[in-house]
Design brief:
This protein is mainly alpha-helical. The protein has a three-stranded antiparallel β-sheet with strand order 1-2-3.
Length: about 300
Amino acid sequence: MDWQAAKKGFRSYLKLERSLSTNSIGAYLTDLDKLIQFSDSKLVKLTPESIKHQDLSDFIAWVNELGMIPSSQARIISGIKAFYRYLLLDNRIADDPSELIEGPKLQRKLPDTLSLVDIDALIAAVDVSTPEGTRNKTMIEVLYGCGLRVSELITLRISNLYLEIEFIKIVGKGNKERLVPIGSQAIKYLKIWLEDVRVHIPIQNGEEDMVFLNRRGKHLSRVYVFMMIKELAEKAGIKKSISPHTFRHSFATHLIEGGADLRAVQEMLGHESITTTEIYTHLDREYLKSVIISHHPRSAGRKKREE
């Protein structure tokens, strides 16, 4: 199999078996092009089937010499691993030469969180004298109170509200459903929005079940929520760069700081893997210090309390 035939087969695999988007497929093929370029530079041309582990190690060194940042290198390696998984599944190779290849260690960037004071200030900046203000305040209460993604917020349905038992049903990534507890503040403002404000909006066909609507009776866009939060942050004097996801991050961080179990937070956030949830456990040093002083059996602070 030559490189172009392998590339064509890989494209079909990504489209038909992996069901990836056009953009994602293009990114994978661009990564493969780098390996093809590397193989063409060798005196003895390499084929997809002839490449060994050492060749891929040399390829990674070659990519590094191009001056690519670690995240770009990691993406390319991920693409090459996917390519060799395809060859293995297609019985083109007997062993995967990329199996033991490791990418560069990436530092996980932790997004900012908002303190309770920040959140209160931002909510207080909402002008609830208007229908839009009441809606916006409700959205922030639900966003923070339930730790939702912005896409989950704007697609929230009335039929998925179980306020009498203090739960809402969320349809998350991959259409996976989960039940999330909802607190009294969020319930209070949801009822005000639904019973006192939303009922006066002329609703467009097909939008009858959507919780949050604009003044024309259509569901809101992600862009609107981003812009609304940025404007409120500026009005409240919050200097951090925040987005709807900041509330989700703050929700999880505040729960864990309050003693919530990591597995429970994982369920509420809708994460498949606990390792994804762990990014929300970046507790500040003073908090960690106070926990150790209060609870470690060899801690001076605990001994003093026991005396």
